[in-house]
Amino acid sequence: MQETPSTEPLVVGFDLDMTLIDTVPGFARVLVALGGELGVDFPVEQMTSKLGPPLDLLLADHLAEERIPSASDRFRELYPDHAIESVPALPGAHDALAAVRRHRGRVVVVTGKFPANARRHVDHLGLDVDHLEGWVWGVGKADALRREGASIYVGDHVHDVEGALAAGVTSVSVLTGGCTREELLAAGTHVVLDDLADFPAWLDAHLLERRVGALLADLEQRGSVLVAYSGGADSAFLLAAAVRALGPERVAAATGYSDSLPQVERDPARTFAESLGVDVLTPQTHEMEREGYRANAGDRCFFCKAELLDVLTPIAAERGIAHVATGTNADDAVAGFRPGIRAAAERGAITPLRDAGLTKDQIRAASQAWGLPTWDKPAAACLSSRVAYGIEVTPHRLARVERAEAAVRAALAGTGLLNLRVRDLGGRASIEIDAALLPLAPALEAAVLDAARAIGFPDAAVDARGFRSGSLNDALR
């Protein structure tokens, strides 16, 4: 089975008949209509028991050889009027395609069906498909799968298995087309599912296993790694993965201490890293001395990450550590405006989580499976991310934000609060909390606002839209 590199986009191929759609009722109607015209009593139930092979093969046992080409053509002509409206999507079909989309994947349909009729089914049922290729059968499907870059092919027939294996991709079989589990396994399929309803969970687990494996393999060949470690879910998982791949003696964690790192984050981060047996370094960083950082334009994060890497890179060299790694994940890579990623890349930092294709949700799932306490830790961006762009970042502003968040969290104790941001908008504070807690009761909202004002904000308001990671970036758009 071929495993494509994790950095390549996910492409999943699907068969159509009896995999995505229940062709039996429509196929049967066309056979009856065709038989009426030809004066042939086709054994409809028998012929529809294992749909998938080319039409010519299905007709071969019931018509003289010379009649098959014209009968096949007539079948295809009759098909649109008899088989489109009556054919439903199989249970789980739409959810299976949606599961591929959730992983930012492409969907290709590779089928033995006449392409125009296959397209009619796809359009009628609203199947979310990027590419459709028809009139290919058995091992002939391999060319289409390879050309489209598929790494998985889902089908219901032993000949679908042949196509997947010939293409060197993972073969997933469903039991909706008449072939038995034993027949499919004997043909060499890698996975057998009852139906497509089981596919989303399988895909989640498959990609997670594959991507974590790619991460560990990548780290192992790196030799040694200094992890730029904030204590958040991403960098904590990267640190734990590096220890698994390399051993603690070839891994170190470095947390840049500055005014932008909340005091409340420091001890838990150190405790976790030390529990892994790695050296924990806490060098001072001086991003506040960089004019571009203090100016707090849209590229502030560039100067912050540049400072961090300019500090950590010499430390890694002094210790004989081959690479500095950041916790950038696959979601970050497609999130749009991320100047910090550019600064790190310019300084040679590696991004193993992103390279393995691991998303935030996958990192949390893997962290939970490994028993890491950070698996459900809320996002905790640096304090400077709370200051609206265009307002100068100063130690005083950052300290005020940190104190205000502690005071608001205390005011909301017992409410189940997870995410909280106090945004410094200059003359006032915008308080973002979990949307599920909104609207606050009047007395509770008053306590929250009083807490922020007591810290030194002239005015404050609770944002009715709730917590939104990176909400200040809206101003840049």
Question: What does the model show?
Answer:
This protein is an alpha/beta fold and 477 residues long. The chain has 20 helices and 13 strands. It has helices at residues 24-38, 44-47, 55-59, 68-83, 93-102, 115-125, 141-148, 158-167, 181-187, 199-222, 233-246, 263-275, 291-295, 300-318, 330-333, 339-346, 352-355, 360-369, 395-411, 442-455; strands at residues 11-14, 106-110, 131-133, 152-155, 170-174, 191-193, 225-228, 251-254, 279-281, 323-325, 420-424, 428-433, 459-462. The strands form 3 sheets. It has a 6-stranded parallel beta sheet with strand order 3-2-1-4-5-6, sandwiched between helices. A hairpin with a 3-residue loop joins strand 11 (420-424) and strand 12 (428-433). Helix 1 crosses helix 4 and helix 7 (141-148) crosses helix 8 (158-167).
Supply the key terms.
477 residues; DNA polymerase, domain 1; Rossmann fold; single chain; four-stranded parallel sheet; alpha/beta
Q: Which range best describes the helical content: under 10%, 10-25%, 25-40%, 40-55%, 55-70% or over 70%?
A: 40-55%
Q: In CATH, what is the homologous superfamily of the largest domain? A: HUPs
Number of helical segments with 4 or more residues:
20
Compute the gyration radius: what is it?
Answer: 29 Å
Class inferred from helices and paired strands: alpha/beta
What number of structural domains do the residues give? Answer: 4
CATH architecture of the largest domain: 3-Layer(aba) Sandwich
Contiguous runs where pLDDT drops below 50 for at least 5 residues: 1-6
